[in-house]
Every structure is written in C-alpha cells, then in structure tokens.
Amino acid sequence: MNDVAGIPAADDLASTARTFAILGGNGDLTERLLIPALGQVVDAARARRTPIDLSIVGAARSPQPDDEWRALVRSSLETAGVSAATVDAISATALFVPTDASDPEQLGALIAACPSSTVLYIALPPAMGLKVAAALAELDLPDDLVIAIEKPFGEDLDQAIALNEALAAVIPEDRLWRIDHFIGNAAAFGMLGLRFGNRLLEAGWNAENIEKVEIVYEETLGLEGRAEFYDQTGALRDMLQSHLLMVLAFTAMERPEAVDPADVHDRMAEVLGAVRLWRDDVSTARRARYTEGRVDGTFFPSYVDEAGVDAEKGTETLAQLLLQVDTERWAGVPFVLRSGKAIGSPRTEVAIHFRPSSLPTGLAGDADGAGPVLRVSLHDGAIDLGLLVNGVHDSGSLMPVVLEGRPGEAELGPYAQVLAGVLQGDTLLSVRGDIAEQCWRIVTPVVAAWKAGETPLEEYEAGSSGPSGW
Fold it and tell me: Parallel, antiparallel, or unpaired: how do β-strands 383-390 and 398-405 relate?
C-alpha cells in the first residue's frame, strides 16, 4: 500500500485491459494533469511487476488526426517524467475519436471504438454534464462501463441535484466517480490516520480542547493563462466549495467503523450536513481580489487588467468562510476556510489551535498566552506540533518548541491516487452524490449574497497576505 492507509496502491490494480475515453481530450486539464497522472499509475504498476494495459482515447468536437493526438500524449507523458517504456506503450495505442458529447449516436460510437473495458471521463464544463447524461440515457451501455466526471458538479445546488438524478438514471453509484483530486492529497486523506491512529490526539479532538480550526490554501500563482476558466469561477467555487470542504470533512468527521467507501462517505456526509455559516451570518464570508504588485519579485498586473478578465463580473481571487459544525464535538468552534491567488508567503495547511492550559502557580507561560498549534501541510504532508516546555535557563518559565514530522513523498500524486482508485474499482476517493450536494448547500447563501452585491469586494496588493484585518 501507499503511505496513507486506505488509498489504493498501484499493485492492487486489476490487470485487465482498460481504456480511458476522455471527453474534452483537447483541453488543458487533459494534457496538463490527466494524461501525466495515468502515466504515473502505469509506471508505478510496472515497477511492481503488475503491468496495466491502458489505452487513452481522446474525444472532442474538433477532429484531430491520430498521429497528432499520439504526439500530444507522448509529449505530455515525457514532460511529466514518465518512463520511456510507459510513454511508448501508451502513445502507441492512443486514438482520437471526434465526438459531440451531447449526441447519443456519436457517444455510442466513441464507446464502441474503445479497445477494452471503458472509463468514460467527462472533463467538460459543468453545464455539459446533464447533456452527456441525457445522451447516455438513450444508449444500451456496457455492463462494465465506468463514468468519471470532473468537479465542479453543477454550478449550484439545483444543478448538482439534477446532475445526480440524471447520472443515477444511467449508471449505479459504484461505477460513478465524481473527481475531486484534492481527496487524493495524502495530507488531506491523512487527517484520518493522524486523528484515529493516535489516541492522544483522538482524545483531545473536540471543543473542550480545540479553540479554532483553520484550513488554508493560498498560492503565489495568478491566472497562469486560465482567465477564461477562473473568471467564470472564482476562489469560492474553485477551492472552498469543493477542495477545502473535503478537508474539513476529514478533519471534523466522526470515527468510521472501517476505512471503506460506505463508512467513510457516511461520516463525511454526516458532518457536512451539520456545517453552516457562523451564526448563519452571511457577512462572515469575505471576498477580495488582487491589485498590481510583486510576488517573489515577479510583477502582477491588477486582476481586472489581466487578459481575458471581465472586470464587471466582480470575480474574487481570495475567499474566506467562517463556519460552524453543529455537533456536540464541535460546539462553538469556528472553522476558517481561506484560499486565494497572488499571495506572498502563502500558507497551505490545516492548523488546529488548541486551547491554552491553566498553569500552576509559579510557572509562567509564553508571552501571548496561546495554546499549542498542530499544523499539517497540504503541500507535502509535513506535521509541526508547537508545544511549551520549561526554559533552559529559567525553570519557572516556559518556552515554545516545535516537534516536526516529515512523512516523505507519496509514490503517486493526488490525481494519480484518485485515478488509481478508478482503475481499481474502489470508490473511496470518489465524491458521493449527497456529499457533493451538501457542499453546494453550505455555500449557497454566500453565492446569493455575493451575486446580489451584499458583500463588499475588498482589494489586496499582489504579494501581500490579503486585505488588512483578515
């Protein structure tokens, strides 16, 4: 198995031949993330002498010769550092099938053209999900067909419900993967092992001992040529509504009886169902966008001046939610979720702020009186636990120290972890339908308030930590 218990390892994969048919094969996501991740999974299986016979079929409305598609697949794999043997094997069998994803006849032809058991991967804008489901409903689908669909799952709660109903009409839940690659982040899923594998943490993981929880994912990056996507989405939909709420679920959920899809997903749905805005006050959700500045010496123009941005949309590049979890375990504990772009000295972590202890007479605490903080990096899984110990030169005072843990690099990256689960048939790293709906429910009041202009759109200089006071 890999470094995190429960995440599928490459040597657990079925050895049968599989085909990934990617709707949106000519998109940036396919070239930059999906193809490299599939190559990593095949490489890992090859290294363990359990090779996977994998074909990749690209599909999009615009025709593309097979040789051009194979060249793109090869280039994508080589850029990702995949082994030459895997590059040769995958690119040699790659095909491209021109397909209108909303046309039942063309979708049927795509599935028929796949040389082996098929994963139909929907890497298209959210509005296309319903159209694909409607087209599939008119087909006699293979019994072994698997469907994977990229987040976001719809563009609001109503669309998420409609999409779930449409997909349920064509395929059972155990052959449907809603893809959120953040679940494959070893640190995110690893919150389960950290909590439930350590009695001393499990015993204190509650409101009596924890004062505040922060889940933060900030980036130095700006738009990186993705303005068309990002200006339609913004930080709230891109990061908080999906990725960071998944991390909150792993952090706050009750103990599952077993690390299997049913138990883990039940506990995730349960805790997300108890999440709401702090005191139901929509003003606790904040938004901002960056103005010109420098990040690590690189000049950033103001967001509104970036190519492809419509300033009138009011798209935020930094979003923060203040949430509460209405369970006995978390009564009164604020959960802060924040993500933004063009941030200087960014944080990417789960920070668990423990309450300060009452000290016996004659023992002086640290200057700020804060309690210990457990920090789990969402970048590399590093764990830092701040503690107070007796001072070296003054036994009557306390000084801060940090215990560090470095679990090491995971064998597979987040996308590869999730796609390994798809190939294995293990839905543990899939987003179950009711979980997707709960995530939209939580942010729906915020989306409505921001659309109505009820929440100020603040500004921050690129390279800063955000607006003053955040």
Answer: antiparallel
C-alpha dist (Å) from residue 158 to 64, 161, 321, 403, 434: 36, 5, 21, 46, 13
Residue type, 376: V
What is the spatial distance between Cα 68 and Cα 74, in angstroms, rounded to a whole number?
10
What pLDDT was estimated at residue 433? 97
Number of H helices, E strands in the chain: 14, 18
CA–CA dist 57, 32 (Å, integer)? 16
Residue 1 confidence (pLDDT): 33
pLDDT of amino acid 186: 87
In angstroms, the Cα distances linking 358 to 69, 146, 330, 361, 460 are 65, 56, 21, 9, 38
Closest CA to 372 of 349, 403, 347: 403
Cα 303 to Cα 280: distance, rounded to the nearest angstrom: 30
Helix (H) or strand (E) holding 159: helix 157-168
84 in Cβ contact with 47 (< 8 Å): no
What is the rounded CA–CA span in Å between residue 22 and residue 147?
10
From the candidate CATH numbers 3.30.360.10, 3.30.1490.190, 3.30.70.140, 3.50.30.20, the one assigned to the domain spanning 183-412+432-461: 3.30.360.10
Produce one character per residue of 125-145: b if its CB has 16 or more CB atoms within 10 Å, e if not: ebebbbebbebbeeeebeeeb
Residue ranges per structural domain of the chain: 10-179, 183-412+432-461
What pLDDT was estimated at residue 361?
62
Q: What are the 10-residue block averages of pLDDT along the chain, 470 residues in total?
A: 40 68 95 96 91 95 96 97 96 97 98 97 94 97 96 94 97 96 91 94 96 98 89 95 97 96 97 98 97 97 95 96 98 98 97 87 64 93 90 78 90 93 94 98 98 96 95
* pLDDT at residue 469, rounded to an integer: 86
**Which letter does DSSP use for residue 173 in this model?**
G
168-190 burial, b at 16+ Cβ within 10 Å, e below that, comes to: eebbebebbbbbbbbbbbbbbbb
On the 0-12 / 13-18 / 19+ scale of CB atoms within 10 A, 352 is: buried
Q: What is the DSSP letter of 130?
A: H
DSSP classification of residue 452 = T
Catalytic annotation, residues:
243
Name the token pair of 72.
Answer: 């793109």
**Could you tell me if 343 and 218 are in contact, meaning their C-beta atoms sit under 8 angstroms apart?**
yes
The single-letter code of the amino acid at 7 is I
The pLDDT assigned to 358 comes to 78
pLDDT at 364: 67
- What kind of fold does domain 10-179 have according to CATH? Rossmann fold (3.40.50)
